[in-house]
Amino acid sequence: MPFAPKTNSFVPSSQLMGSVFVYRFSIVFCAFLLLFGSVLASERPKEPDAGQIEAEEFDAIGIILHHVLDNHDWHLFDKKGADGQIHPVSIPLPIILLSEGQLDVFMSNAFEHGHALVQRGSRSYQMDEHGHITDTNGHSVLDFSITKNVASMLLAVVLLLIIFTRGAKSYDASNGRPHGIAKVVEPLVLFVRDDIAIPNIGHQYKKYMPYLLTAFFFIWINNLLGLIPTGANFTGNISVTATLAFFTLLITNFSGTKTYWGHVFTPHVPLWLYPIMIPVEMVGVVAKPIALMIRLFANITAGHIIILSLISLIFVFKSLAMAPVSLGFVLFISCIELLVAALQAYVFTLLSALFIGLALEQPETNAHH
Length: 369
Prior knowledge:
With 369 residues, this protein is mainly alpha-helical. The chain has 10 helices and 8 strands.
């Protein structure tokens, strides 16, 4: 069945440029408010009255990093205990360690948030403030623990399996017509096929559709899960984006034709320029996935930092008058983040298809251009 070309824009360019401008303006505005708030906080009297003394200053940077970085437990909220101290409430996750050839499995709450040693036979483990687990006897430890990011990834995989399994079954129940969840998924699949795969890869697109669909939906679902309060910053983890970009690198280079590799090792320049151009072309092969990695990581992490920074302004200024302004910006940025979540999945998939299409370049296509 022939495929009719569709519009090749995910969102109108005017709306996209406006959203990008507002997004960048919000970053600058948030940074200014945080700086201004810290200046005001530093100008308070150094010896306040006894009724104004607080247990400790609000650590905005520590709070933001704690929520952006990975953890061995799933933090939900903090509550004030009977002793007057603030205690975190979190879901413990499995700790899986391999030390001295022995496998130790236990829950993360055994560490009591890094305040306790865990004794496992002749081995004892401790966790530092950064979440690194070491053997107190000096033995090397391999950590295979289920962290917050891993748990979020597994949740996303389960959701994807449910969505696509139920969508596939709905076709059988309705004689090949989309029904139920398939009505939502099918337009997205057709969008990836008609607006991303076919224009950039060409007639060989079918071979790469499984990867492109997986990348698009996997990134999008994880981006949305990260926007849920207490959600994990999964796609804001540089290791995750590096792995996704590495898959694109492998597929692109293994799909490369003689024309593609000819541009790398025999560029169309005078021979005396080969010592310069060949290293440049080889750097370009690696620079493409690096751009994919950094783009996804930076945009998703920036969104989380902006939202957490805006909320922190309430505590930095220590004024309820700041709450409506701060929460208003949080709601506004959260709406933009919904667009960014889909946009980053689209951009990653589009660039992956573009790189694959360039690798599939044929001599006739090159001569025509």
